[in-house]
Design goal:
about 65% helix; 2 domains; three-stranded antiparallel β-sheet; elongated; mainly alpha; about 260 residues; two-stranded antiparallel sheet; Multidrug-efflux Transporter Regulator, Chain: A, Domain 2
């Protein structure tokens, strides 16, 4: 009797060893539809090299921050030939490119003191209280050096740190909502006003143009709206109270000095 031909493929334990993906994780991917089902021979499930490559791809996409549901949907479209995965990955990388060039800095005490300049004692404590600077063991984390620079320049011009920080939070709150609404708007218009077509190349070109021009548009629109709001404030007569307020403050200050 001739020897039986050995079965090709990998059991789930062999696949787990080969790919360093635990068996329970492989089963999870299958249950979510991200990994194709194995071939069943008798009572044993066998996987092949296509499963090995799919697991590598799933890991790559997870490293890029995609959820398992997003991975499942993306791979389903790719399997049907509805998108070129390499082109999509290029588009996805474009979407994750930073808009701001502001990079956090970790400074020692001397570097921070040099950054804030020869200001009054207590400035660093005030910056820490307002979370413009955060303590990291024996160093100081500046999450946004650009915003700190703005705050320092405003403080030198007479706008204190608390006012600057409060203004930054107001801007951030409204810009966060605007960014979310704009993202939803552009996504809805994809291929019908945002990008000439639904190809990854067209969308990448549109997004690449949007990033610098979008920042310019925000600066221009914000400037226009600030002008409008300040003209409205002046027209209301509210600024006429400022002189009286300044006089009252000066009298209080003089009284404390006596």
């Amino acid at each position: 009797m001739a020897d039986e031909e050995p079965l090709s493929g990998y059991t789930i334990d062999e696949l787990a060893t080969l790919t360093d993906v635990p068996s329970r994780t492989i089963r999870f991917y299958q249950s979510k539809g991200a990994l194709p089902s194995p071939t069943i021979r008798g009572r044993v499930a066998y996987y092949d090299d296509a499963h090995v490559e799919r697991l590598k791809l799933i890991g790559t996409l997870q490293d890029r921050g995609l959820s398992i549901k997003a991975i499942r949907d993306l791979l389903a479209h790719a399997d049907k030939g509805e998108l070129a995965l390499n082109e999509w990955l290029g588009l996805e990388q474009q979407l994750k490119e930073p808009w701001a060039t502001d990079v956090p800095r970790l400074l020692d005490e001397n570097e921070l003191r040099e950054l804030v300049g020869g200001r009054r004692p207590g400035v660093i404590a005030e910056l820490l209280r307002l979370k413009l600077v955060e303590r990291e063991h024996d160093r100081y984390l500046v999450r946004s050096p650009s915003l700190l620079e703005v705050a320092l320049r405003l403080e030198a011009a007479g706008v204190d740190f608390e006012t600057a920080a409060g203004a930054a939070e107001l801007v951030r709150k409204h810009m966060a909502r605007a960014a979310a609404e704009l993202t939803a708007f552009f996504y809805k218009r994809t291929g019908e006003g945002f990008g000439r077509d639904l190809t990854a190349g067209d969308l990448t070109d549109a997004y690449r143009a949007l990033r610098p021009l979008g920042l310019d548009a925000v600066r221009i629109i914000f400037g226009q709206e600030m002008e409008r709001a300040l003209r409205k404030l002046v027209a209301s007569g509210a600024t006429s109270d400022l002189s009286a307020k300044a006089t009252r403050k000066r009298k209080r200050t003089d009284g404390k000095r006596r």
